[in-house]
Design a protein that fits this description.
With about 450 residues, the protein is mainly α. It has 19 helices and no strands. The protein starts with a helix and ends with a helix.
Length: about 450
């Protein structure tokens, strides 16, 4: 397949994807259909598919590749999300999640400042992403804990949901693979922890101020528009905690996974760590024992209630796991066309511009790759090395700006505008809305964050 045809093919896939999503076609089916057709065409033209275990047929390899995506995702991100959703489902069944939300929401309601809470949660996204190794795990856990708090405070469902989603694209953390790889590409003789404290943290803090403010103002404006079209909503009545008929300590059960993940980590132990999946299984075991003892119900009944954990895992396979698998499949098909690599290579090698402008340009390009594939990986491994080499060859002292803008600015933008990222599609599925509704809420604040972080980086460093 020639370079020109590859580019046309890749662009056509993206245009078709956006068109189908705008037409509100089922996202999983859209991703699967476009990806399958693309892989069949690429396989026939190139006389071979991209499946690791080839079937011997370019056509059949398209289906083999989907099987491989299912295997890799069920063993990774999908398994992680299913374990989180299992615990969230059990908490919802016990009403422990609602009890937690009530205890938190009651004092906050007296402040009469629900958007202050919204802004705080956008900031907390970043804090939680530092603690949890997966942004999607953070989202799932926060939907089970802080989302109900905002709903009880009368926050619009889209505003509440997007407040949880929007901050996971902040890659300024001391334990993220992305800045670690960029540091290596730039040949910077500094540890990731050091780079975080010395470089990433100041920029991230400045950016967060404007990021949070932009999201709050954007949300208030959009909520007013929605309110103008609807009847005036009644004031939200937060129920009395006693009405749940549960001991007060049930409100602590939703927090156990956070405690387990933080407690069994390098922060406290040198040789003991626990995965997110194992942490949720441990949390379920603790919650199950607490409920068995506290409820004083027959053992058979508590065992039947405990099955809600596994029932919720099963329920999450369709709406959550399949979206992630289909997105991974589409991203692989898009990369297989080779068109994106041709575009990247042409733009980077043929554009003659100052190195500072080149850093911004490459970061925007990486953000678009993130948006198109739903993952930062393509930008990291295709543009990252080229950007690093350009900075090193220039002899400039712009390695730090390259690290910060390519890591922080690029990813906050790409995560917000991607129609197939796991975070945005998870939120759309949870909120029962179109993914474009999520993007509309997140795009503008993320553009503000991008610009602020870029300007602050060049001023400070």
């Amino acid at each position: 397949m020639s370079a020109t045809v590859s580019v046309i093919f890749a662009v056509a896939m993206l245009v078709l994807l956006v068109w189908a999503i705008m037409k509100k076609l089922q996202p999983v089916m859209v991703l699967w259909v476009i990806g399958t057709i693309a892989l069949i065409i690429v396989g026939v033209v190139n006389h071979g598919g991209i499946a690791e275990a080839s079937s011997g047929s370019a056509v059949l390899d398209a289906f083999e590749y989907f099987k491989e995506c299912m295997g890799s995702q069920f063993a990774g991100t999908a398994l992680l999300i299913m374990s989180v959703m299992g615990y969230v489902g059990y908490m919802n069944y016990l009403k422990a999640g609602d009890l937690f939300a009530v205890y938190v929401a009651r004092p906050l309601q007296k402040l009469k400042a629900k958007y202050l809470v919204v802004g705080l949660i956008v900031f907390l996204d970043w804090i939680f992403v530092m603690v949890l190794p997966s942004g999607i795990a953070t989202i799932a856990l926060l939907f089970g804990t802080l989302y109900p708090v905002m709903i009880y405070l009368g926050v619009n469902t889209l505003t509440a949901g997007c407040a949880i989603v929007i901050g996971v694209g902040v890659f300024a953390t001391p334990a993220n693979f992305f800045p670690a790889q960029v540091l290596q590409d730039l040949q910077m003789d500094i540890s990731l922890a050091e780079a975080f404290v010395k470089y990433m943290l100041p920029i991230a803090l400045i950016m967060e101020v404007f990021f949070v403010l932009a999201y709050v103002l954007q949300s208030r404006r959009m909520d007013k528009k929605l309110a103008a079209k609807e009847q005036k909503a009644e004031e939200v009545q937060i129920p009395d905690p006693k009405s749940f008929g549960l001991p007060w300590y049930y409100a602590l059960l939703p927090l156990i996974p956070f405690v387990a993940i933080i407690g069994f980590s390098s922060l406290f132990f040198d040789n003991i760590t626990i995965s997110v999946v194992a942490a949720n299984l441990l949390s379920f075991a603790i919650a199950f024992i607490v409920h068995m003892i506290s409820s004083k119900k027959p053992v058979k009944e508590t065992f039947n209630e405990g099955f809600q954990f596994f029932q919720s895992i099963g329920d999450s396979v369709g709406p959550v796991a399949m979206i992630i698998i289909a997105g991974t499949f589409f991203a692989g098909a898009l990369e297989a066309t080779g068109g994106m690599n041709v575009i990247i290579d042409a733009l980077i090698h043929k554009a003659s511009m100052p190195i500072s402008l080149f850093i911004v340009f490459a970061s925007v390009l990486a953000a678009l790759m993130y948006a198109a594939t739903g993952s930062p990986m393509l930008g990291l491994y295709s543009i990252g090395p080229l950007l690093a080499q350009a900075v090193l060859d220039s002899g400039s002292d712009l390695a730090v700006p390259a690290l910060l803008i390519f890591t922080i600015s690029s990813n906050i933008l790409g995560a917000a505008i991607s129609p197939i990222s796991a975070a945005n599609m998870f939120a759309a599925g949870f909120l029962k809305c179109q993914v474009t509704d999520v993007i509309k809420r997140c795009a503008m604040p993320s553009v503000v964050a991008f610009l602020v972080s870029v300007i602050a980086t060049f001023i400070i460093f």
